[in-house]
Amino acid sequence: MTPRDLDLRLAWIRNLAMLAVAERDGLPQHEQLRKNSAEIKLALADVPPPPLAQRLGLTAVQANFFWAAVAVSADPLLAVHVEALGGSSARRGLSVSLFARLVGLDAAPARELAAWLAVSNPLVEGRLVVASDDAAPAVRTYGVPSRVIAHLAGDDTPEPGVVIVEAPVAATLVLDDAQRSAVETLARVILGESSSLVILEGPRGTGRTSAIAHAAGGPVVEIDLATSTQLAAGRREATLRDRPLVLANVDRATDVQQLALRDQLQLHRGVVIVTASVLGAQLPLDRPTIRVRWPVPSTTTRRQLWTQMGAAADGIDALAHRYRIGPGTIARAIESARLLGGAAATLDTASLTTGLRHNISEELGGLAQRVEVTQTWDDLVLAEDTRDQVDALIARVRHAHKVLEDWDYRGKMARGTGVPALFSGPPGTGKTMVAGLIARALDLELYQVDLSQVISKWVGETEKQLARVFDAAEQGHGLLLFDEADALFGQRTSEVKGAVDRYANLEVNYLLQRVEAFGGITILTTNLDAGIDRALKRRLAGHVVFGLPDEDERVALWRRLTATSRAPLDPALDFGQLSRAFPRMSGANIRNAALAAAFLAAADGATTITQAHLVRAARSEYRSMGHELASVVLT
């Protein structure tokens, strides 16, 4: 529709209103107004019906009502005339009664129009006209939103919260075979059944919406449910443009949004595509549903994407092998690296890794805290077989590409390629410390999940918060640490006695699914090995049991945790005596005692930290542990 066509329709309605007022008041200019209206109507006869009216299947009367409602809402010169004819209610919009008077509509078609507007119809359902009140159908007023008026005038700027995603240029689109197959499926569904619901399942940042636009052969209207609540605006924009509606991150929608989704999408007449990071996302809609799996790009494809977006050549292989991400995440990492390094920044491996880390922190929000790892392997004392298990976990991550890709073992894996591990053992035996050292060895950020922020009493909220955690870690390739994991991964019960048991089982089921699908490292720590669900244990890449240190290990711990580069230690310290006298101490207890001894020495004004200081600190720590004091008094 051209601006001239719209101006003609508005002028026609304006002249009709002025004519009606002139005839009612007996004004002399009514003849000229009648002539003007006839000329405009004759000019409109040569104007083809607007595509919008054709798509909506509007009759001539219904289309004219729509244009009249647009005129009443948009034309300031018309306001005084319609108010003179319709009273103060005309300020809120156009009624069927006033419309019939303007265009000279007979009683029967006027009743049909009023009845049509009062029930299911594309104008009201598509939010192209909005009822201003709940009056009787004949006198109910209808206004037209400003976005509709702007669109008809040629303005294609969408409302805030609504994003138009253009189809990528074919020459720049990089897809692997699995993704091309998914695009072909999407194209068949989108271009075929107009009332279908398509659920595209795959990680965020992997190019899901761009793939949809490519399959649709043009732009799509997107509402990101993680950040926007403009469902009605999105439906309206999709109707105005006659483009598919995409609801991104449906698994991140709040409960209020879920309820609105059901009501809003039942009214939407076009195809709806939703994206979700979790397999099996459900929407309570009575539509034919098609599920399409959207995979993470292959290593070769990721290499092409990094190259295409400007990464330095010498680091591309490492980036492609290490980070299982897609074009969206890659683009954000590059943008962050450029912002941090300035216009002349070199997009090498280090700067791009930093860019990825900034993005994961932003995504996680307050759900997980980044842990600064300050210890080294020299601070660690472990039994030899336990250290071997830890080294095996590191090797599993470090050499994943060679074993899974180059040696083709990926097909042998029954489930995902992630590395979930369980660290169990008494408190203070080094479980969390080892998790940090693994992250440091692999050059990863360690994020400790804040269970107080994740666990919710509201049904479904815990799963949504966990989805955010896993999605962010997947994009930034961070190491996730769940301390006290038995609080989340507890045993499911077969004796469901109520809603609490049922929803607790659902939470564990969801967690098992996410841990299984996660492509990174998940470390769970627990003091209660028996409290972890057995199904989770079967999915573990490793289960490392941390025991209390033996006598020799305690001696090594006392020596390492007491010494620093500048600590004034008494040369006569007897760590063996301390180890024998306090046999129940773990590494964390010894660390606490060593630090307390240093403060005691400083408070005494001593020139060295003596055996007596260590004994006093160890006795205090032992008492706080709930144990009886050593029977031998040390001096």
Describe it.
This protein is of the alpha/beta class and 635 residues long. The protein has five domains: 3-152, no CATH class; 163-293, 3-Layer(aba) Sandwich (Rossmann fold); 299-364, Helicase, Ruva Protein, domain 3, CATH 1.10.8; 377-545, Rossmann fold; 551-624, Helicase, Ruva Protein, domain 3. 51% of the residues lie in helices and 10% in strands. It contains 28 helices and 15 strands. The strands form three sheets. It has a six-stranded mixed beta sheet with strand order 4-6-7-8-5-9. Strand 6 (220-224), helix 12 and strand 7 (245-248) form a beta-alpha-beta unit. Helix 14 crosses helix 15 and helix 27 (587-604) packs across helix 28 (611-624).
Question: What labels describe this entry?
Answer:
Helicase, Ruva Protein, domain 3, 6-stranded mixed β-sheet, 28 helices, 635 residues, alpha/beta, Rossmann fold
Helix content: 40-55%
Mean pLDDT: 84
What best-fitting shape do the alpha-carbon axes yield? elongated
Distance, first to last CA: 97 Å
Provide the low-confidence segments as ranges.
Answer: 498-503
β-strand amount: 5-15%
Could you tell me the CATH topology label of the largest domain. Rossmann fold
Biggest β-sheet strands, sense, barrel: 6 strands, mixed
> In terms of structural class, how would the helical and strand content be classed?
alpha/beta
Q: Could you tell me the radius of gyration in angstroms?
A: 34 Å
Number of domains: 5
Helices, by number, come to 28
For this structure, the quaternary state is: single chain
Task: Find the count of extended strands (DSSP E, 2+ residues).
Answer: 15
Second-tier CATH architecture of the largest domain:
3-Layer(aba) Sandwich
> What is the class of the largest domain in the CATH system?
Alpha Beta
